[in-house]
Design a protein that fits this description.
Number of strands: 9
Bound molecules: adenosine monophosphate
Shape: globular
Oligomer: single chain
Distance between the termini: 44 Å
Low-confidence stretches: none
Radius of gyration: 19 Å
Helix content: 25-40%
Amino acid sequence: MRIVTDPLALRDAISPETTVGFVPTMGYLHEGHLSLVEAAKQENDLVVMSIFVNPTQFGPNEDLDRYPRDFDRDEALAREAGVDILFYPDTTTMYPLDMARVTVRTGADVLCGASRPGHFDGVLTVVSKLFNIVRPTRAYFGLKDAQQVALIEGYVHDYFVPVEIRRCPIIREASGLAKSSRNVYLSESERIEAAEINKALTEAETGLQTGVAVTAVKARLIERLDAIPNSTIDYVEIVDYPTLTEAHDTSQELLIAAAVQFERARLIDNVIWKRG
Ligand code: AMP
């Protein structure tokens, strides 16, 4: 595995005929990230992973400074998983002039975008830069961040970006808790309580499956999440996917999503319900 910090060196390392599977991350790797690598390995000659904690997707009062980082551990995990090139740039490299950024027009005012203004502008800005540096054939994103996937797909469509976006399933602990770098901030009891989030989402999915109305399913979901001790609901939403607009009776896919704030970690999780 090669570690590359310079965009031009990365370009030199990849021959134009090679198919490239790209896995962008913010590091502190877990099985969720590694599942994306596995998917990328199946379909491409070469796998490039990036590790970059992108400052522009964090709000002023968010956890940029204390976002978990451990490059040595990440390097070992990436190597073991079969990553060919690890791109590990610093902030000045990624934002040399910071003269231009990507702005999201629709779909950023709901769910995580409503609680984190500007977050998805930062995400699409960095993804756009990374796509231009890596020039991947395919890029792999986890449905753990379902809104992010929808907005990246929209961006790729709008900007005619020559890349295939692959949606990858959420990897969970045995308890159902979605794997996340931020889980490290949960206390032992919070970790047990946080497993309720997925149980409640699964129950909501069953509700939709059995024909319960969206409003009733949402109300019950709020009740269930409200009952989790030592936490507060940030949001609970059921929206059409991937448009992220109001859920309709005719929606083919509905995203049931929640964000719950524990003492030191804000957790997100979701289930996508497909009609029929
Ligand atoms: P992050 O490092 O949190 O920015 O995540 C990098 C990529 O890994 C994103 O595409 C995430 O959606 C994906 N990811 C994070 N957690 C999981 C998970 N539990 N299952 C699947 N993919 C995940």
